[in-house]
């Protein structure tokens, strides 16, 4: 399903980034990092017109030859990025949306952990599990 | 896209200029060669017209032609054809152009701030402009457009020629042959009847002016005054000593050409091997004589390899040879003099005038005429309906044969028109209009042509028309026609996909991107540029990606990350294309975005690449910095990756090391946790030596404990007070043996000469790879202390600081001197596992007094590869990449918090733990304990021996000891010592006492002894150690007995001793020294003793008459031992009393039991009669204690002597001090073995006693012995 899932802090450093182990991890790091430009562009564009009532889901950020990159920004400006294989055409926008929602819920749980220091990299088994589920589901 | 020097309009305009060919006679060639130039080159600097020209369009409107440039090239006919890809030679030239144009560091960078990013980006990219210029120049002329076809030909003949007119004729015929014979497909000509312009060259130095003038007159007659020109030049002789400064306008034009030429020469050798025909090589040489740019256009040695990556992938070797070659070339040209040395400024003006004359009188009218002609043709054709015309063409096959390209099987661009096809005429006219800047007409023509071509499905032509339509639409000044970007997009796509002509597609992209950029459409420009990157050319991809990156950063919403990413891509392509410097620059620029933002994987990758590129570019320092970043950044790479990083780093490092050997460079690995550094002063001690047990003292293995330190400080203070007769000196400081981050390091610690200093360095390996350190040693500087009287050899040495900081391998001769100062110990092997934190202890042994500063550590670093370490040859492998380096300690003192400034800013105090002062020799003592127990019963007395040994070369005195448990031990008082046996062997019976054999006599009056308390007196807590003569000479040792008494409470007791001694000589920096000892004693329960006193109610017997006022003392003894430590039974051997007023008088055993044995949990009650002492004794001035011993066995123990007395008085003092006023009714229940019980019983029955004290002050000492079952373990 997803080939790379990343959580980026407000200050644009990675809190969590995981990709399918078979592929070059570095490539995904670059992809995700570069997608932040588009995320910022989208946020700034939306922020002016709609004010606070902003949709968290940003939709397709940009397509590359091999992947599609989707973005999602929480109200606290934490960014989620999901990279999906372009060949996977079965994936609809709605499904991506629900993936983000699931990710956001799990992220909220992580943040609710009193022992988690906000701003630290996420090290949570539950979160790992959710992410793994998204990456392996339907292969 | 970065800013360019030219404006977009200028750039586009300059890319399409009228082309003029030159044909020279040999003589003319010779004359111009004097200036080290050929004719085309001679003209080149003057080809831009400064004045305005005029032209009339078909409607007779006057147009102004501004800033026109003509391009003059030598005519070099050759048969090759244009193709859609650049040939390898062209690629190499482009590569060379880019390579030679590097960014000047720091000159042209602009700072861009986006969000929290502050990037310095090079504002201009001259290498790109150079590439673009060179690329456009090398564009092969194509059939589908006429812009770079030759419009005119200059025929040049020298006036020195015998018959110049004949020469003109010959040249004219030659031109005609080239154009019309069909032998050469190149060069291409614009119009069949090319403008021929006859030029007579007159060398002023050589020829006769008269002759030239007449010849010119003749020419005017023949060709008309508009078609010929007399150019006079070479007005001075070539002379090297002529110092007149004439600007050299050729240098900027010819510099690059020389490079090109050199490339061609370099090209011959390798290609001639592949190409069999020598003729082609000859042809190549002849071509070389011609204008360089022409050769570039179509080179005969075109390799048939569409994928030329082979030649590009191995550029390092080639480019270096080329570079060398070009340098040679320059030196050659430099030696032969600069260009145009025979020309004066007047000559320059003449040439300029000539060009102007030629353009305005010859070229422009020619163009004007042709435009008019073409226009007429087109108008005449307009009568026919276009659609009908094309329809008939389709139905009847028309007058034109659709012809597939023979030369280019790949060319799928539809049909090709013959050169003079009517469809091309409109395009021709459009091109002519474009060249003379009549963009409006050009646009409408292109537009029409485009429609025609599209309807014919002539895709290549259509694309060309689209491209030019878009460009001319853009160039139309003042017309509100939007730039048709989609024309360009279609054109690029057609070129790429239909025609497979990457060169044209690239040209189109370059224009379009530049135009879009000028309109602020950076995003579109970037998309175009990125689309144009492909696998076939790394150089082009790299340059375009870089420009795209610049587009991203110039956008309104700056896309910093995209910029960085595309920079990295560009860098990657640059490195593939062999452009290392450019690659490095790209990576460095991208680095600014990724740096320290948590994207460690990417950051490491960039750093690694930067490191590699820097190294190959011979910038090892940069390489090291980059590699160091990877290794110390706490990278999350895998172990194998880190291993590779490390290996690369070590390799680079080693190479750097070979270059500069003077100083040891700093190594980044492993990390030193500086604050955890501990310093220990003194010898490392053996704790046990045979049966001797050394004092524990302090060692580096112990953790620092604040409470313990305070305790030792307190003890030392007591000792110093005692030594200084009750006063603590003002400058008293506790001795610190081991310094760490928690100790007070504000002052320089004091170390003693010839005593080692051990520094414990904490290394942390941040990598997942093992590291092998070797030859680990400390670096120090040493300043000898001249003031010290002990330093006799001071004058031998010049007063400078000794250090071992230099590379030890280099300064071997210094080694001896250093060893004389400080011996540095080396740890040969120190292996660190992955992510391990490990301590190394390194020793220094100072030999002289002075100030020592420990600066850092030096070591050899190598990566340890697990498999190789085990093998013997593994060492050799590690030797290969072992590097030598150092790391300095950076110890920060504690944060200051005293003043306001301290509090509002962050300040740190000094930390001097590594800067010890070496002082003259001091005595050093070793203390050993013999037969020292580890477990005792509560109250048990045990005898042990203590040995003091002076191991230094200096005598010591004033030996004292202080302890946290002064009750625990005694050395015996001075008065009683001689009586005690000195040999440990006499203590066999485990009897620590002095005994007398006395049979038990019940009822007899017990002997009594009077002892003064002063005999046992000692100042509080501190005990002087009674050694012979109170001075211990060097090497001497002395043994003393030591009595120990088990603590009163069960459990494990920690007992600390602090031995104090001084130098016999006073006035040293170190006033005294101390030695610590800590023992742990496990006390187990023994007897519980309770005593009570009752007034005797029984009638006095005759015997006791005189002591009418006696009391009965009952002692309840209970064995509360739980058979611990193999105890079976207790024997109560003796009960003694000690008091100032009372004495035990008689033993009244109610049970009549002779000896008192107590097995586990047994109780016994003993009854004694106590009487008052004689009054005179009690009233004596000195308080004396009466000791009375009542023995229950056969032996009497003299309780008043050591050790019994010692312990008694010691307890007495402490209890006494507690009980001055208080007199509670209490019994000391915990009086065991030989326990002194002070029973104060306010006995109610004692009313009859009319003594001043109504309390009984009697201390009882119960002496017992124990039978211990010794368990014998049979080992089978």
UniProtKB/TrEMBL annotation, chain A:
Keyword Lyase: no
UniProt record, GO biological process: endoplasmic reticulum to Golgi vesicle-mediated transport
Residue runs in coiled coils: none
GO cellular component: perinuclear region of cytoplasm
Pfam families registered for this protein in UniProt: Sedlin_N
CDD domains registered for this protein in UniProt: TRAPPC2L
Localization per record: Cytoplasm, Perinuclear region
SUPFAM superfamilies assigned: SNARE-like
Keywords of this entry: ER-Golgi transport, Transport
InterPro entries: Longin-like_dom_sf, Sedlin, TRAPPC2L
Family: Belongs to the TRAPP small subunits family. Sedlin subfamily.
Name this polypeptide is given: Trafficking protein particle complex subunit 2-like protein
Automatic annotation (TrEMBL), chain B:
Species for this entry: Betta splendens
Limits of the TPPC8 second Ig-like domain: 938-1075
Region (Disordered): 299-333
Source organism superkingdom: Eukaryota
GO cellular component: TRAPPIII protein complex
Pfam family, one: TRAPPC-Trs85
Name recorded for this polypeptide: Trafficking protein particle complex subunit 8 isoform X3
Polar residues bias locations: 304-323
InterPro entries: Ig_TPPC8_1st, Ig_TPPC8_2nd, Ig_TPPC8_3rd, TPR-like_helical_dom_sf, TRAPP_III_complex_Trs85
Gene name, Swiss-Prot/TrEMBL: trappc8
Domain annotation TPPC8 third Ig-like: ranges: 1078-1268
Sequence ranges assigned to domain TPPC8 first Ig-like in this UniProt record: 701-937
């Amino acid at each position: 399903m997803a080939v790379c899932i990343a959580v980026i802090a407000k200050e644009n450093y990675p809190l969590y980034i995981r990709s399918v182990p078979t592929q070059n991890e570095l490539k995904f790091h670059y992809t995700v990092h570069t997608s932040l430009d588009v995320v910022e562009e989208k946020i700034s564009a939306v922020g002016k017109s709609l004010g606070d009532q902003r949709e968290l889901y940003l939709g397709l950020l940009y397509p590359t030859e091999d992947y599609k990159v989707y973005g999602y920004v929480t109200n606290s400006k934490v960014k989620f990025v999901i990279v999906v294989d372009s060949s996977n055409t079965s994936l609809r926008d709605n499904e991506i949306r629900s993936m983000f929602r699931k990710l956001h819920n799990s992220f909220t749980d992580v943040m609710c952990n009193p022992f988690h220091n906000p701003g630290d990299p996420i090290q949570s088994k539950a979160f790992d599990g959710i992410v793994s589920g998204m990456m392996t589901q339907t292969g | 896209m970065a800013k360019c020097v030219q404006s977009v309009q200028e750039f586009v305009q300059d890319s399409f200029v009228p082309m003029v060919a030159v044909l020279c006679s040999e003589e003319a060639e010779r004359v111009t060669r004097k200036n080290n130039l050929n004719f085309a080159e001679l003209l080149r600097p003057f080809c831009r017209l400064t004045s305005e020209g005029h032209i009339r369009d078909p409607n007779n409107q006057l147009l102004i032609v501004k800033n026109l440039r003509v391009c003059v090239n030598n005519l070099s006919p050759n048969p090759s054809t244009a193709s859609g890809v650049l040939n390898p030679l062209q690629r190499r030239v482009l590569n060379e152009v880019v390579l030679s144009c590097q960014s000047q560091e720091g000159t042209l960078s602009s700072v861009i701030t986006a969000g929290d990013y502050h990037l310095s980006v090079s504002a201009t990219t001259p290498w790109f402009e150079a590439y673009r210029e060179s690329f456009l120049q090398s564009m092969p002329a194509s059939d589908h457009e006429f812009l770079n076809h030759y419009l005119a030909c200059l025929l040049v003949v020298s006036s020195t020629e015998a018959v110049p007119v004949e020469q003109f004729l010959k040249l004219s015929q030659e031109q005609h042959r080239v154009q019309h014979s069909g032998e050469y497909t190149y060069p291409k000509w614009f119009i069949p009847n090319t403008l021929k312009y006859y030029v007579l060259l007159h060398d002023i130095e050589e020829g006769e002016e008269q002759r030239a003038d007449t010849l010119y007159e003749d020419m005017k007659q023949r060709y008309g005054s508009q078609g010929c020109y007399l150019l006079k030049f070479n007005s001075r002789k070539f002379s090297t000593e002529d110092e007149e400064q004439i600007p050299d306008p050729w240098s900027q034009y010819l510099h690059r050409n020389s490079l090109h030429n050199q490339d061609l020469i370099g090209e011959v050798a390798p290609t001639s091997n592949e190409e069999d025909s020598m003729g082609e090589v000859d042809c190549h040489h002849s071509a070389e004589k011609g204008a360089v740019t022409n050769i570039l256009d179509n080179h005969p040695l075109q390799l048939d390899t569409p994928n030329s990556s082979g030649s590009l992938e191995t550029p390092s070797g080639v480019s270096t040879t080329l570079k060398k070659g070009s340098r040679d070339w320059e030196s050659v040209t430099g030696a032969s003099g600069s260009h145009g040395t025979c020309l004066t400024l007047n000559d320059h003006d003449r040439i300029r005038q000539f060009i102007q004359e030629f353009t305005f009188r010859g070229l422009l009218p020619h163009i004007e005429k042709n435009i008019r002609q073409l226009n007429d043709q087109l108008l005449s054709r307009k009568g026919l309906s276009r659609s009908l015309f094309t329809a008939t063409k389709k139905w009847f096959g028309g007058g034109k044969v659709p012809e597939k390209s023979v030369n280019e099987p790949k060319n799928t661009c539809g049909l090709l028109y013959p050169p003079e096809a009517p469809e091309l005429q409109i395009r021709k006219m459009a091109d002519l209009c474009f060249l003379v800047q009549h963009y409006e007409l050009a646009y409408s023509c292109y537009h029409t042509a485009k429609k025609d071509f599209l309807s014919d499905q002539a895709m290549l032509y259509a694309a060309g028309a689209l491209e030019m339509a878009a460009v001319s639409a853009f160039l139309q000044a003042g017309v509100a026609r939007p730039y048709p970007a989609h024309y360009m997009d279609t054109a690029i796509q057609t070129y790429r996909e239909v025609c497979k002509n990457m060169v044209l597609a690239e040209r189109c992209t370059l224009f379009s991107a530049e135009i879009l950029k000028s309109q602020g459409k950076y995003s579109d420009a970037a998309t175009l540029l990125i689309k144009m990157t492909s696998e076939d050319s790394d150089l082009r991809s790299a340059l375009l990606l870089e420009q795209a990156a610049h587009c991203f950063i110039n956008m309104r919403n700056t896309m910093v990350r995209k910029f960085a990413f595309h920079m990295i891509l560009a860098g990657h392509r640059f490195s593939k294309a062999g452009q290392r410097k450019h690659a490095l620059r790209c990576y460095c620029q991208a680095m600014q975005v990724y740096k320290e933002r948590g994207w460690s994987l990417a950051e490491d990758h960039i750093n690694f690449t930067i490191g590699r590129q820097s190294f190959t570019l011979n910038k090892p320092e940069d390489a090291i910095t980059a590699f160091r970043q990877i290794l110390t950044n706490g990278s999350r790479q895998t172990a194998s990756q880190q291993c590779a990083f490390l290996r690369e780093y070590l390799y680079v490092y080693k190479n750097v090391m070979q270059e500069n050997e003077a100083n040891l460079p700093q190594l980044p690995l492993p990390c030193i946790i500086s604050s955890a550094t501990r310093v220990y002063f003194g010898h490392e001690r053996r704790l046990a030596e045979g049966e001797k047990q050394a004092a524990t003292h302090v060692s580096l293995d112990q953790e620092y404990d604040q409470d313990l330190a305070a305790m030792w400080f307190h003890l030392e203070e007591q000792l110093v007070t005692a030594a200084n007769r009750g006063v603590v000196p003002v400058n008293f400081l506790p001795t610190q043996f081991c310094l760490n981050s928690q100790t007070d390091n504000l002052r320089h610690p004091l170390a003693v000469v010839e005593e080692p200093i051990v520094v414990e360095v904490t290394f942390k390996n941040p990598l997942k790879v093992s590291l092998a350190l070797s030859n680990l040693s400390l670096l120090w500087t040493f300043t000898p202390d001249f003031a010290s009287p002990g330093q006799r050899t001071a004058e031998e040495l010049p007063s400078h600081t000794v250090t071992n900081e230099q590379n030890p391998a280099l300064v071997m001769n210094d080694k001896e001197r250093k060893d004389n100062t400080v011996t540095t110990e080396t740890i040969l092997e120190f292996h660190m596992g992955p992510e391990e934190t490990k301590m190394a202890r390194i020793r220094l042994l100072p030999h002289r007094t002075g100030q020592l500063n420990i600066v850092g550590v030096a070591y050899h670093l190598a990566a340890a590869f697990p498999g190789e370490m085990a093998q013997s040859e593994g060492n050799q492998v590690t030797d290969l990449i072992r590097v030598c380096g150092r790391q300095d300690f950076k110890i920060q003192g504690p944060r200051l918090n005293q003043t306001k400034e301290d509090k509002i800013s962050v300040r740190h105090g000094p930390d001097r733990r590594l800067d010890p002062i070496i002082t003259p020799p001091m005595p050093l003592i070793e203390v050993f304990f013999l037969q020292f127990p580890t477990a005792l019963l509560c109250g048990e007395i045990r005898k042990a021996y203590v040995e003091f040994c002076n191991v230094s070369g200096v005598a010591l005195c004033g030996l004292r000891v202080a302890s946290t448990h002064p009750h625990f031990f005694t050395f015996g008082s001075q008065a009683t010592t001689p009586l005690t046996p000195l040999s440990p062997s006499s203590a066999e019976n485990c009897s620590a006492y002095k005994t007398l054999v006395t049979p038990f006599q019940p009822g007899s009056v017990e002997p009594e002894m009077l002892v003064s308390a002063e005999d046992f007196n000692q100042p509080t807590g501190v005990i002087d150690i009674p050694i012979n003569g109170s001075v211990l000479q060097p090497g001497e040792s002395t043994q003393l007995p030591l009595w120990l008494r088990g603590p009163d409470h069960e459990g494990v007791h920690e007992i600390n001793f602090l031995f104090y001694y001084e130098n016999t000589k006073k006035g040293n920096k170190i006033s005294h020294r101390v030695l610590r000892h800590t023992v742990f004693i496990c006390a187990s329960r023994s007897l519980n003793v309770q005593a009570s006193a009752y007034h005797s109610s029984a009638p006095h017997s005759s015997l006791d008459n005189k002591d009418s006022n006696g009391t009965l003392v009952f002692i309840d003894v209970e064995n509360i031992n739980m058979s611990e430590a193999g105890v079976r039974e207790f024997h109560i051997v003796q009960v003694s009393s000690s008091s100032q007023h009372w004495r035990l008088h008689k033993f009244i055993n109610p049970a009549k039991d002779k000896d008192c044995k107590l097995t586990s949990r047994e109780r016994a009650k003993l009854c004694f009669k106590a009487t008052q002492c004689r009054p005179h004794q009690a009233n004596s001035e000195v308080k004396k204690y009466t000791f009375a011993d009542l023995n229950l066995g056969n032996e009497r123990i003299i309780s008043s002597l050591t050790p019994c007395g010692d312990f008694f008085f010691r307890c007495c003092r402490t209890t006494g001090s507690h009980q001055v006023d208080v007199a509670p009714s209490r019994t000391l229940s915990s009086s065991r073995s030989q326990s002194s019980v002070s029973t104060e019983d306010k006995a109610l029955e004692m009313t009859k006693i009319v003594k001043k004290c109504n309390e009984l002050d009697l201390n009882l000492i119960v002496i017992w012995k124990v039978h211990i079952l010794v368990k014998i373990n049979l080992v089978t």
